[in-house]
Amino acid sequence: MLTAFISPGKYVQGADVLDQAEDFIKQLGTNVLILSSKTAWKMAGDRLEQGLGDLTVTVEEFGGECSKIEIKRIEDLAVETGAEVIVGFGGGKALDAAKAAAYYSNLPVVVIPSIAASDAPCSALAVIYTPAGEFEEYLVLPHNPNLVLMDTNLVAASPARFLVAGMGDALATKFEAEAVFTAGKDTLAGGVPTGAALALADLCYETLIEYGRMAKVAVEAGAVTPALEQVVEANTLLSGLGFESGGLAAAHAIHNGFTALEATHDYLHGEKVAFSTLVQLVLEGQSTGLIYEVLDFCDSVGLPTTLSQLGLANPRKDELLKVGQLATAAGETIYNEPFPVDAAMVADAILATDAYGTSIKEG
Ligand SMILES: [Zn+2]
Q1: Catalytic residue from among 269, 299, 318, 348
Q2: Residue 143 annotated in active site
Q3: How far apart are CA 209 and CA 154, in angstroms?
Q4: How far is the CA of 154 from the centre of ligand 1 (A)?
Q5: What is the model's pTM?
Q6: Is residue 2 part of a domain?
Q7: Residues 6 or more apart whose Cβ sits within 8 Å of residue 330
Q8: Where among 124, 156, 188 does a domain terminate?
Q9: Taking residues 220-237, what's their average pLDDT?
Q10: Active-site residue flag, 266
Q11: Number of structural domains found in the chain
Q12: How many whole angstroms from 294 Cα to the centroid of ligand 1?
């Protein structure tokens, strides 16, 4: 039995990191292709361009989905511009597209998240969607990003909903890692979870419980505070290292099931993962104390605890069964749970979670 742990080459976090981008990026190359989301560029493109100083820079707008077509387009552009390094700037999908394009181009990749909405930035994983936005597959890359630059001023300037969604994604980390460890399954790192991964996953959860609410309020005020810094680290670094070297289990598989329902498309990855984490805990038969602690946390920061908060006010039983069927598709991470799972069990756990969520709102 092997244990394994992987991580990005370097992770740098703080207010105003963008202003020092050249110092960090020039070590990887001086001809830079930036794949930027429209929103990120509008918000801080000037700052990034200035921060890149004397580097040669080509900026390309991200098409909106991390699809195979989009990845190929960026790959071709990297050849055309003679890029030595690809920089992804924006949200999870833009970053994943940059990572995938860099891999196919055999170039180093720098990830600059504009929000702290998921644990994608640090990982050696790109989630591929169809051009219509449905989950297609995980692309497992041979290494993590060479560099992650996390500018907390960008997070503070973005809607709080993104930070909250990041907390939802980070919420799953500890519980998925524990399931994988108990089941003795391998992670994306290529072995069973290390003690380091489990400790990081624990710290991730503790940080959310301790600082999550304060961080949300700080972002609503547009302020960078120590609580915000802690939660950004939990959402991005701890959750990223934790899920990758600690493993994924039911929560992310159930999330993938939800993406098949049109009504959930307006909701962010982390929002669906938060609810799916609750479903995982119910499915696992966790204690009342733990389930209500997580429910209360979700409620306190505005993460969904009911189906209606995911756009599914009156779900039909066959819709929930469809989520269950997709969550239990061959190769899904739900099989990292330490017990047998089927679609009907998932559908029932979803219904029960919705009822618990509804009960705390009714007081
Ligand atoms: Zn996730």
Answers
A1: 269
A2: no
A3: 23
A4: 21
A5: 0.94
A6: no
A7: none
A8: 156
A9: 98
A10: no
A11: 2
A12: 17
